[in-house]
């Protein structure tokens, strides 16, 4: 399944619309006023699905991932000199990416690809394509992309 993740051009807080490859809206992400990033995910009927919440007072960005009200894991940025690196503590998955942090893969413990993410350049707002191998992993893959985008934003 292919998703298109596009930040809204005029938005006071981080807000995103998530579409499938045919332009059908699947999710809305609404940024909430809080210390650090707090991104709530809703389906097309405006039902709350989960959130990505930045943990404040940390040296490097760290985000908790919530499915409904239950914390299912976290992702944190690691200190590196040349390229962004993230540790993912969820489902035994890991993140591997390029030196800009725009293109990366989410892999399971056996090295199988869960999702592939790449940023489309030359847009007015951040635009990513997320290719997810299995439909059941779409929401968690979206949460990981939201967290990495917010961490890159926090880092300037």
Produce a short descriptive summary.
The chain is mainly beta. Strands 8-7-6-5-4-3-2-1-12-11-10-9 form a twelve-stranded antiparallel β-sheet, covered by helices on one side. 11% of the residues lie in helices and 47% in strands.
Number of helices: 1
Terminal residue distance: 31 Å
Classify the secondary structure makeup into a structural class: mainly beta
Kindly provide the name of the CATH class: Mainly Beta
Question: The biggest beta sheet, please?
Answer: 12 strands, antiparallel
Determine the mean pLDDT: 86
Radius of gyration: 14 Å
Q: Please state how the strands of the largest beta sheet are arranged side by side.
A: 8-7-6-5-4-3-2-1-12-11-10-9
Percentage of helical residues?
Answer: 10-25%
- Output the helix-strand order: EEEEEEEEEEEEH
The fourth-level CATH homologous superfamily is LURP1-related
